[in-house]
Amino acid sequence: MKMNSDIEKMLKDVVKRVSAVRPSLQCVHFENGDAVVTDSHRLIRVKGAAPKNLILDLNLADFSFPEISYPNVDRLIPKKFSTEFTLSRADALTLLPSLKAMTKVNSDFKKVVKLEVSEMNFKISCSETSTGISQMIDLEPKEFSGAEISLSCNSQYLVDALEALTSMKDIKFVNMEVKINSGLTPFLISAGNIDYLLTPVKVF
């Protein structure tokens, strides 16, 4: 199985808070050459991580091989997207400190940030009504295609995704691909052979 320590850490970070009452989600699932983990809010797929003929579930909490029925995650990953753009590795590293600050300031909506994407701007913003504090990150997206769109997501999960992808030492890439369908369906951040799927948050 072709996984380095950075990838192993990324997978473990997703499943480490999964309760023992959900043993299947404490596992990394190997099938069709891919390694997959999910905590039901986010999903990571590492393509080409194992032999094609290997079907295996490895519990990352105790490194056992339980006999479980792993959920069908293929249906969770959209095949087509209405909006796509690229985010450079350098831009992701630049925005991370500000995004981390948002996770500390924004407590009203459980660390929720708003993403707004158009041909001219990629904005990440949050505001806290109790203090009146507002923050915004504004970047220019590259290779934008599709419709303008906005959605809300958990800021800590977004930090985790960008930190994990930018910290990969053995995966060579310059840009991340960001793919979105709507404000209510999971969106994808891809880099190299890694797909990181995040579920939006409904804000009323």
Any descriptors?
nine-stranded antiparallel beta sheet; four-stranded antiparallel beta sheet; 204 residues; DNA Polymerase III, Chain A, domain 2; 35% strand; 13 strands; 2 domains; alpha+beta; 3 helices
Output the structural class.
Answer: alpha+beta
What is the CATH domain class of the largest domain?
Alpha Beta
CATH topology of the largest domain: DNA Polymerase III, Chain A, domain 2
Cα-to-Cα separation, first versus last residue: 44 Å
Number of strands: 13
- The helical percent reads 10-25%
Domain DNA polymerase III beta sliding clamp C-terminal: 75-190
Protein name: DNA polymerase III beta sliding clamp C-terminal domain-containing protein
Family: Belongs to the beta sliding clamp family.
Main location: cytoplasm
Overview of the structural elements:
The protein is of the alpha+beta class and 204 residues long. The chain folds into two domains: 5-76, no CATH class; 83-176, Roll (DNA Polymerase III, Chain A, domain 2), CATH 3.10.150. It has three helices and 13 strands; from the N terminus they run αβββββαβββββαβββ. The chain has helices at 5-15, 89-105, 155-166, and strands at residues 27-31, 34-38, 42-46, 56-59, 83-88, 112-117, 122-128, 133-139, 142-146, 149-154, 175-180, 187-191, 194-198. It has a nine-stranded antiparallel sheet with strand order 4-1-2-3-13-12-11-5-9. Strands 8-7-6-10 form a four-stranded antiparallel sheet. A hairpin with a 2-residue loop joins β1 (27-31) and β2 (34-38). α2 (89-105) packs antiparallel against α3. It is globular, with a radius of gyration of 17 Å. The protein starts with a helix and ends in a 6-residue tail after the last strand. 29% of the residues are buried.
